[in-house]
Amino acid sequence: MCSILKDTSTITRESAFEWLCSFDNYGWIFGLERITSLMERLGNPQSELKVIHVAGTNGKGSVCKYIGSILQKAGYTVGVYLSPHVERFSERIVVNSQEISEEELALLVAQVRPLAEEMKQNNNTPTFFEIVTAFAFLYFKNRTVDYAVVEVGLGGRFDATNVVTPLVSVITNISLEHTDILGKDIVSIASEKAGIIKDHVPVITAATQHARETIEHVARERNAPIVCIDRTMWKRVSHTGKYQEFFIQGTFKDYTVKTSLLGQHQGENIAVAIAAVERLQMGGVYITDSDILDGIAAAAHPGRMEIVSEKPLILLDGAHNPDGMSMLAKTIKEDFSYQRLILVLGVLKEKDIKTMVSTIAPLSDVIIVTKSANPRASDPLFLKETIGRFDANKKIYVEASIPEAIDHAKRIAKQKDMICVSGSLFTVGEARSYLLSGKTTS
């Protein structure tokens, strides 16, 4: 998780980042007591921000990118806080498409460090994510952003970002994920995510069935007006390997939008983003139709359905749960033509590996299993064994690292083949850095 700016130029900055990484060892500890205490010590900078708060299972990052891009096109200064990062830690904290600099991050460490150390001495140690969330709120306040688009890290109710009172709460789709933490069924998970709903604050959701019922129930309890996005409100009009066009039914009017983000599921993400923006418009925020169209067209989200090479075709997608893998499989079947699919797969060990591989393996002609540098990465031999249970005749190779797996895939790929790298954002992040560097392991 903590690949933070290791090429810093001074010992002072290096020690600052090493200090931050040391909190990575505390993992996820739910509860708002620590983040509340930390934010109070910092003067509650989050209270001065106009926030769009985004939770959900899949699509959170894309929705944040669309909303942020639309607001930026409308002339506002916009902070976007996302997690995790794909290649660089600085991707997490962005203002008007510019990632936070090493110097700015070091200044935040200097400001927060004494407070976090004091909490540590009192056996109230904040987690890595709580400290980084504090950085984001402080930075956005210092930069006097007009709006902050904030992605929930995990769940919602006890997530560190849930110290905000937003202008709009967004909950994308909901499926089974982190069942050891959030609950074993959809209703339990939906209840956790609905924890971001605040009294009288509008809610946008694309959740369906029991998850939607749960969110609607919480919204009623909190007198929060709700807009539910369903499949009748968007339609894909056209698509190519570089962009796609959607018809979106909005609250006020209909839109025909173009996006470079691939996959039919982006229609739902765009519909959610537009519904959130329309609620902002209702609240008096000046945003034109052109801002919406231009913002969606300009939005980019590296590592998600991203093509980084054409001969052979190389697709990167950070699908890291069963629903994400299902969307990837659907997109590959519907939107791409190829002779053979060569899959490079690396998954974190706590994920539902069995369901994920059973979804993507049948489409693949060759699978190269590997692991990212993340300590939570699953052993490639375990991945091979799991896939072998579904198809004993599947051609499976094992490589110890992402660069070796990429080189192997490129060696065996012919021009009309397709290479897909997936299973984790950490896998995709390492693959993207390596592919765009032009290096080889040989």
Strand order of the largest sheet: 4-3-2-5-1-6-7-8
Average pLDDT for all residues: 91
Task: Tell me, briefly, the overall form.
Answer: globular
SS element count, helices: 15
Fourth CATH level, the homologous superfamily of the largest domain = Mur-like, catalytic domain
- The CATH topology annotation of the largest domain reads as UDP-N-acetylmuramoyl-L-alanine:D-glutamate ligase
Main pleated-sheet profile: 8 strands, mixed
Structural class estimated from helices and strands: alpha/beta
As a percent range, the share of helical residues equals 40-55%
Query: How many whole angstroms does the radius of gyration measure?
Result: 21 Å
CATH class of the largest domain: Alpha Beta
Number of strands: 17
CATH architecture of the largest domain: 3-Layer(aba) Sandwich
Instruction: List the uncertain runs.
Output: 3-11
Structural features, described:
- The protein has 442 residues and is of the alpha/beta class.
- Helices cover 40% and strands 17% of the residues.
- Strand 9 and strand 10 form a beta hairpin.
- Helix 11 runs parallel beside helix 12.
- The longest helix has 20 residues.
Kindly summarize this structure in a few lines:
The protein has two domains: 11-298, UDP-N-acetylmuramoyl-L-alanine:D-glutamate ligase, CATH 3.40.1190; 306-437, Protein-Tyrosine Phosphatase, Chain A, CATH 3.90.190. Helix content is 40%, strand content 17%.
Keywords:
442 residues; alpha/beta; UDP-N-acetylmuramoyl-L-alanine:D-glutamate ligase; Protein-Tyrosine Phosphatase, Chain A; 8-stranded mixed sheet; 6-stranded mixed sheet; disordered N terminus
